[in-house]
Amino acid sequence: MSAKAELDGALGSGQTLIAPAGPNDALHFLRGGGEMGRVVRAYDWGDSPLGSPQTWPQSLRTVVGLVLASPFPKCLVWGKEMIAIYNDAFVPILGKKPVSIGRSFRTIWSEAWETIGPIAERAFAGEATFVEDFPLVVSRNDFPEQTYFTFSYTPLLDENGEIAGFMDTVIETTGKVEAEARLRVLNAELGHRMKNTQAIVQAIARQTLREVVDEDSLNAFTERLMALSSAHEILLRQSWESAPLRAVMENVLKHHVGAERFDFAGPDVVVGPKAVLSISLMLHEMATNAIKHGAMSVPEGGVEIRWVTQGEGGNAILHLSWTERNGPPACPPKRHGFGSRLISGGLIGAGRARLQFLETGLVGNFEAPLDWLSAGKTGAGEV
C-alpha cells in the first residue's frame, strides 16, 4: 500500500488533519514537504512521546522543517524512544515497509538493529558517524536482502545543549557495489583470457618464425609481449582507467631481476592507460639493456628510479630519471633497433628522452606533461 493510500485510510478512521500552516502560523515549519509532509500533518501526535507539534521545542521544529524540505534522503530520530520523521526521498529506502512516521527507528529497522543499534547509541553519546558502502541485511520487500548504504548519523542538540536525537542522512549504494563486484569478476576473466591469448601468440610466433629469425629475436619478442601483458594486468586491476606510476614500474620490472635491486622514490602520481603501456614498454627495454650490458649485469649493480613533478595545473611536468650504479661504464649502442625506438619514445611514446652514457653507468632522463600522462594522451599527430 502506498503512503498516500495509508494516509487516506488514516484520515478516514477519524484522525484529525493539522491544517496546512500559513507563513505566520506557529506550525509554519510543517508547511509543504510533499507526501511525507501530509503524513506528518495528519499524524495524531497527541498519543506520541513527542506530544503535539504546538508543544515541540524550537530545535525539533527547525530540524523537522529541514528534513521535510530536503530533496536528499533524511530521517530525523528524536528522543529516547527514537521517534522517526523522514522525507519523501527516504521512502524508497523503506521498500514495502509500512509508513513509519512517528514510529521508533529501532522498530522500523528491528531486523538489522543488532548491526546499526550500536551506531545509533554512539550518536546519542555524541559521536558522529560516516560510513561508505555499509553492508546491511534488511527485510523491506518481504524477504531478507543484502543491501549497502553510505550514511551519516549526526547528533542533534536541544535548547539546553543536550543531545536529543540524530540525523540519518543516507543514500543506498547497493546497485553500485553490486556493479563493482560484477566488474571485478569480468576483469578477472578478461585478464585470464588475455594471458591465454598472449601465450597462444607466443607459441604461434615461435613455431612460425623459428626457421626465419634467431633465438635472441624470438626471446626479445616474447619478453616485450610479457611487458605488454604486465601493463594490461595492472590496468585490469584498476578497471582500465588509470594506475599508480610506482605500481606500473614495479609490476613490469619484477619480471627481470629482484625488486631489491631497484630503488624507487617519488610522489604519488596516477597515469592513464596509454601512458601505462608506453612506460611499461620503455622500462622493459631499459631493464633488458641493464641486464645485458649495464648495472644489472653484475651482482652489486642497481638502478635508482626517481621522479618529481614541476609546475602547476596544465603546465605541470613529470621528470623521471633512471640512474645505474655500481655497474660497468655505459657505451652507446652500435645499432638502433626497435628497443631503442621504444626508449627514445619516453613516457608517452613521443620523445622527451635523453640518455647519457657515463663511466659510472647509464643515466636516462624522461619527461612529459602531467596532464598527458594522467589522461592517457600521446604525442601530437596521433589520430
The biggest sheet amounts to:
5 strands, antiparallel
CATH architecture of the largest domain: 2-Layer Sandwich
CATH topology-level fold name of the largest domain: Heat Shock Protein 90
Low-confidence stretches: 1-24, 376-383
Molecular shape: elongated
Q: Strand order, biggest sheet?
A: 2-1-5-4-3
Helix content: 25-40%
Span of the ends, CA to CA: 58 Å
How many helices in DSSP terms? 12
Can you write the helix and strand succession as a string?
Answer: HHHEEHHHEEEHHEHEEHEEHEEH
Level-1 CATH class name of the largest domain: Alpha Beta
Query: Strand fraction band?
Result: 15-25%
Mean pLDDT: 82
How would you explain this protein's 3D organization?
Helix content is 40%, strand content 22%. By secondary structure, it is of the alpha+beta class. The protein folds into 2 domains: 3-172, PAS domain (Beta-Lactamase, 2-Layer Sandwich), CATH 3.30.450; 176-375, Heat Shock Protein 90. The strands form 3 sheets. Strands 2-1-5-4-3 form a 5-stranded antiparallel sheet, with helices on both faces. A 5-stranded mixed sheet has the order 7-9-10-12-11. The protein has a two-stranded antiparallel sheet with strand order 6-8. A hairpin with a 5-residue loop joins strand 4 (144-157) and strand 5 (163-172).
